[in-house]
């Protein structure tokens, strides 16, 4: 087994998107090769309705996929193809924009006014940039979950893990999207296929992600539930951890346990021409997309 080294840890940064939604961006609009095939990751979490209710009004996408995972509250969505619906707490929507779609996403809070969700953008290879748009909606009650003897829980949104397989399929990047909870003081090694680029995003509690070059079991400074906990270099709430090459990651939960997303995918390794919500391979294709928007030909007729 080869543990993946930690290339970088960084805090998600405050950002305003849509019509004034306050969120935290872990990565996006930087070097697209860093986490290829993923382009952007946003954490939209608020307890004040004025910080999210204006939502994300009508906007275009082409050449990418948007993956929305709701933890609290709900998101109403509609698009230029006539699709409408609502994502509730625990639900996932994997939207393949393909050749082009106009849509809107309008969040609402729960009974306490809380809204929490994530949106990930995945790139599409050139061969699929202009495919017909499609949705894969998965209810939270349908997401497979595995529970280990030590209390570790993993929801399998996409890809395979510990004998379970997520319902999202047919994605070129062969993604693995996991929602992982590790109890306080537990150290866990989680497999990640070597060919995938991988990152973790901590959103509850804190943990130490062991670097392959660091000795194990050092600098033990606390005891939780009778177990020593390595609290060196703890990654806390809203922290991105980017991993290098290997076939597993090692994580040790902090004093209150940790919950994080573990996401990986096969790199596409193609040129990226990117402006706003449209991602193509060349500047000529990008310019054509915006001409299509101006000319009213952005949405391709169904065959």
Automatic annotation (TrEMBL):
<feature type="binding site">
    <location>
        <position position="61"/>
    </location>
    <ligand>
        <name>Fe cation</name>
    </ligand>
</feature>
<dbReference type="GO" id="GO:0008127">
    <property type="term" value="F:quercetin 2,3-dioxygenase activity"/>
</dbReference>
<feature type="binding site">
    <location>
        <position position="103"/>
    </location>
    <ligand>
        <name>Fe cation</name>
    </ligand>
</feature>
<keyword id="KW-0223">Dioxygenase</keyword>
<comment type="similarity">
    <text>Belongs to the pirin family.</text>
</comment>
<dbReference type="InterPro" id="IPR012093">
    <property type="entry name" value="Pirin"/>
</dbReference>
<protein>
    <submittedName>
        <fullName>Quercetin 2,3-dioxygenase</fullName>
        <ecNumber>1.13.11.24</ecNumber>
    </submittedName>
</protein>
<feature type="domain" description="Pirin C-terminal">
    <location>
        <begin position="177"/>
        <end position="298"/>
    </location>
</feature>
<keyword id="KW-0479">Metal-binding</keyword>
<dbReference type="InterPro" id="IPR014710">
    <property type="entry name" value="RmlC-like_jellyroll"/>
</dbReference>
<dbReference type="Pfam" id="PF05726">
    <property type="entry name" value="Pirin_C"/>
</dbReference>
<dbReference type="InterPro" id="IPR008778">
    <property type="entry name" value="Pirin_C_dom"/>
</dbReference>
<keyword id="KW-0560">Oxidoreductase</keyword>
<keyword id="KW-0408">Iron</keyword>
<dbReference type="Pfam" id="PF02678">
    <property type="entry name" value="Pirin"/>
</dbReference>
<feature type="binding site">
    <location>
        <position position="59"/>
    </location>
    <ligand>
        <name>Fe cation</name>
    </ligand>
</feature>
<feature type="binding site">
    <location>
        <position position="105"/>
    </location>
    <ligand>
        <name>Fe cation</name>
    </ligand>
</feature>
<dbReference type="GO" id="GO:0046872">
    <property type="term" value="F:metal ion binding"/>
</dbReference>
<feature type="domain" description="Pirin N-terminal">
    <location>
        <begin position="21"/>
        <end position="121"/>
    </location>
</feature>
<dbReference type="InterPro" id="IPR011051">
    <property type="entry name" value="RmlC_Cupin_sf"/>
</dbReference>
<dbReference type="InterPro" id="IPR003829">
    <property type="entry name" value="Pirin_N_dom"/>
</dbReference>
């Amino acid at each position: 087994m080869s543990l993946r080294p930690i290339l970088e840890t960084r805090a998600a940064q405050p950002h305003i998107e849509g019509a004034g939604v306050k969120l935290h961006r872990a990565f996006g609009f930087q070097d697209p090769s860093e986490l290829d095939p993923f382009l952007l990751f946003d954490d939209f979490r608020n307890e004040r309705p004025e910080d999210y209710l204006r939502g994300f009004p009508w906007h275009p996408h082409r050449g990418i996929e948007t993956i929305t995972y709701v933890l609290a509250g709900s998101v109403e969505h509609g698009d230029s193809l006539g699709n409408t619906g609502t994502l509730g707490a625990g639900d996932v929507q994997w939207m393949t924009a393909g050749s082009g779609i106009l849509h809107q996403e309008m969040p609402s809070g729960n009974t306490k006014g809380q809204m929490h969700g994530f949106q990930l953008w995945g790139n599409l290879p050139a061969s699929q940039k202009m495919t017909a748009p499609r949705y894969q909606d998965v209810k939270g009650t349908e997401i497979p979950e595995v529970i280990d003897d030590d209390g570790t829980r993993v929801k399998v949104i996409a890809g395979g893990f510990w004998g379970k397989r997520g319902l999202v399929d047919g994605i070129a990047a062969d993604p693995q999207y996991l929602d992982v909870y590790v109890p306080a003081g537990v150290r866990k090694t989680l497999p990640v296929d070597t060919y995938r680029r991988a990152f973790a995003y901590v959103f509850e509690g804190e943990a130490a992600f062991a670097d392959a070059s660091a000795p194990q079991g050092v600098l033990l400074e606390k005891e939780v539930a009778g177990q020593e906990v390595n609290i060196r270099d703890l990654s806390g709430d809203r922290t991105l951890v980017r991993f290098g090459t290997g076939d597993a990651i090692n994580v040790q939960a902090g004093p209150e346990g940790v919950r994080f997303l573990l996401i990986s995918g096969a790199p596409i390794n193609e040129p990226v021409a990117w402006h706003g919500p449209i991602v193509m391979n060349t500047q000529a294709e990008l310019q054509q997309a915006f001409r299509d928007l101006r000319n009213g030909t952005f949405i391709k007729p169904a065959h």
